Amino acid sequence: MAMPRDAVVLLSGGLDSTTVLAIARHEGFMPHALTFRYGQRHQLEVGAAERVARHFGVAAHRVVDIDLRAFGGSALTADVPVPKDRAFTEMADEIPITYVPARNTIFLSFALAWAEVLAAGDIFIGVTAVDSSGYPDCRPEYIGAYERMANLATKAAVEGRQRVRIHTPLIRMTKAEIIRRGLELGVNYSMTLTCYDPAPDGLACGHCDACLLRRRGFAENGVPDPTAYRSP
């Protein structure tokens, strides 16, 4: 039997990244989970990532501290209100203030560094270009460009010993399709936290873009959302 290949999986503790971790496991990879404490509005998602990592028995889980509040520019890293109750059409038409400048570029760079140390050529990230808030660093064009750059930037790739591949299994899936795939793989979504603006006790707001997309995804599958919301 072939030994599982090491892979770095970016894990926020949310629905998408948890599904990606399950997919990486299902595809025979040995995941090394990478989570960031980056100055986001709350630390609850880090706790969710730790729960998910333990559940899946990852080879290692690193929680890295960086402080994007030094720059702000987002409702997730500055004292700016999180938009609530936006129409789904509005989400598709404009990039909201919850976009964190260059976040995926920063996260992928850390993942690339760890992957090079591990001699792992595979990185998984849970971006989706369909049911998202229109973030520019979730598009296939961006991922393709980053992958090309990564293969110019690492010693192993330049020496021809290992090619970097960035896996984006969710990128063309709706939230409903992501949830359906996760349920097929036995994902327990009660471990996850999706909300941009949860209460201190962990209750999700139910009204930010992330909550609305999640709720619609579960509804379209005809299954209950295990998240506890503080308002209907």
Walk me through the structure.
The protein is an alpha/beta fold and 232 residues long. It has a single domain, classed as 3-Layer(aba) Sandwich (Rossmann fold), CATH 3.40.50. The chain has eight helices and five strands, in the order βαβαβααβααβαα. The protein has helices spanning 15-26, 44-56, 88-93, 103-118, 140-153, 155-158, 175-184, 209-221; strands at 5-10, 29-37, 60-65, 122-124, 165-167. A five-stranded parallel β-sheet has the order 3-2-1-4-5, sandwiched between helices. Helix 1 (15-26) crosses helix 7 and helix 7 crosses helix 8 (209-221).
Number of individual domains: 1
Helix and strand element order: EHEHEHHEHHEHH
CATH fold title: Rossmann fold
In CATH's first tier, which class applies? Alpha Beta
Number of helices: 8
How are the secondary structure elements laid out?
Elements: E1 5-10, H1 15-26, E2 29-37, H2 44-56, E3 60-65, H3 88-93, H4 103-118, E4 122-124, H5 140-153, H6 155-158, E5 165-167, H7 175-184, H8 209-221
